[in-house]
Design brief:
Elements (H helix, E strand, L loop, with lengths): L4 H4 L16 H20 L2 H24 L1 H11 L15 H9 L17 E2 L2 E2 L6 H5 L3 H6 L2 H33 L1
Antiparallel strand pairs: 1-2
Helix pairs in contact: 2-5, 3-8
This protein binds iron/sulfur cluster (SF4).
Length: about 180
């Protein structure tokens, strides 16, 4: 950690660390936005967090690329358009930990406060997911259709990328919580 950050933080500390998923989503978003406003630049200036953030973004990119190569992205799009399918149901947003919401803000994503689709996840936009750092449940779910349509070898490759993404996200969230405990909250 870059201890130089400590000197730059001369703000009140109104956001005690919010942990776990047992809070209303609006409260979690409010917490993440408050922390981002108060500490975002200092967090992003930390060399360790910056490295982990870049690593996580790279891992997310790799997963998306593998999904495309394996044909998963095409199957999901076809399912959504022609099969009335949507994996992004209402309530999945409640699974998010506040720190993962903060990670999305650090990546430049906006968190919506209202739902576009009354039956969909809060983070579901007109063209798919609006956020970059998704919950493990979002990236890990291989439905019956995918199991049937996608080459098993390609699915194994994809699972490896998903594992890398999950590990990178976990490492970043833990570092973020340590940073917040140490310097901010
Ligand atoms: S992929 Fe995005 S929109 Fe879909 S459930 Fe996950 S967070 Fe919500």
């Amino acid at each position: 950690m870059d201890s130089g950050n400590q000197k730059t933080l001369n703000v009140t500390r109104p956001y005690p660390l919010l942990l776990g998923t047992d809070h209303k989503i609006c409260k979690k978003i409010e917490w993440a936005c408050g922390v981002m406003d108060a500490f975002g630049p200092a967090i992003l200036a930390d060399a360790v967090i910056d490295g982990l953030l870049k690593g996580y973004q790279g891992a997310i990119k790799n997963t998306l690329a593998e999904m495309s190569v394996a044909g998963v992205a095409g199957q999901c799009a076809d399912c959504a358009v022609n099969d009335n399918g949507s994996c992004c149901g209402k309530g999945i947003e409640n699974r998010f930990d506040p720190s993962l919401l903060l990670v999305n803000l650090l990546m430049g994503c906006k968190l919506p406060m209202s739902r576009l689709d009354p039956h969909g996840c809060l983070f579901l936009g007109g063209n798919g997911c609006l956020i970059a750092a998704r919950h493990l449940i979002c990236i890990n779910y291989i439905c019956k259709r995918l199991k049937e349509k996608i080459d098993p070898k390609a699915l194994r490759h994809l699972e490896k990328k998903i594992g890398d993404e999950a590990d990178a996200g976990f490492a970043l969230e833990e570092a973020l919580k340590r940073w917040l405990r140490m310097y901010a909250l």
